[in-house]
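Supplementary Methods, section 5.1.

A reviewer requested that the exact input to the structure prediction be made available. We therefore reproduce it here, unchanged from the version used in the analyses.
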Amino acid sequence: MNIRMVMLTSAAALAAVASPVFAADAIVAAEPEAVDYVRVCDAYGTGYFYIPGTETCLKVGGYLRFEVYGGKHINGTSDWNARTRAQVSFTAKSDTEYGPLTGVIVLRNNGDNSSTNSTLDSAYIDIAGLRAGLFYSWWDDDLSGEPDTLSSFETLHNSVRYQYESGDFYAGVSVDELEDGYFKSGERPNNVGIAAAVGGKVGAVSYQVIGGYDTDNEEGAVRGMLFADIGPGTLGLAAVYASGPNSYYAQSEWTVAAEYAAKITDKWTITPMAQYFGNYVTDTSNGAIPSSFNGLGDAWRVGVTVDYQIADNLYAKGTVNYTDADDADDVTTGFFRLQRAF
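The structure derived from this sequence is encoded token-by-token as follows.
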């Protein structure tokens, strides 16, 4: 290379360094937004998680159920029927200066045919032992088998209840709107009931005693239940007395029932059951219920329920029962149920 070429090359390089270069603006990557991941809340048991951005814990649960049941004219003129149910529940909990604040919403859809029926099954607020809203009363509790009749009409009420709990003991009182219960001829079904309960557990024995007074019908009922772990299963005993037909109990003046839930294996449970009714009402439709139990015949019932756990959260249940009443024909009913819980 000659001297002239070297000089031209050097001049070009200096010019390039000295001249400003107008390049495009640099691309800056946006900072990713922080992700608020769902956190597990273990303060109230399993299944709860924090609602993002709050200190409220939420649990979602429910079940799907398919059922076929049968009996003489059990569905109009048909002796059998099939139905499907979908239920979902939401339970929210948070801490307050008064203790845990709980809110529950349960939604249910019953599909008996192509026209399904959706209902609000429960919705209530619970804090410091005080509960207000739509919820099931203590009368909804019963023996573990299916054939027993230990309550009457609807056990889901708009109520206000206070329940005290200490260890294995509880006691409470409630005021219930008896809008779906028994009412006298010429009146409307919007009565008021007052109920009370005590219950608890002592060793292998649990117990419950409840009472309800229907202020409109001026009649009441008392019920006691006891469960004891004996051998491979649990013995259940129950008794009810009603002063007259009322919204809490109107099936009979008195009744006693017994069952034994035998745990055959980890998956199988077989529960035979028997119940006797004194002064038995054969039809508990409002227009058919007499004003008193006087002069009615007795009745007895036997039945058996079989439960089988197919897999985790998948259960099968079958039951059949036979009722022999003095004032009516013998009746045999039963059902088969398949249920998936979550």
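The helical segments are 3-18. These observations are discussed further in the main text.
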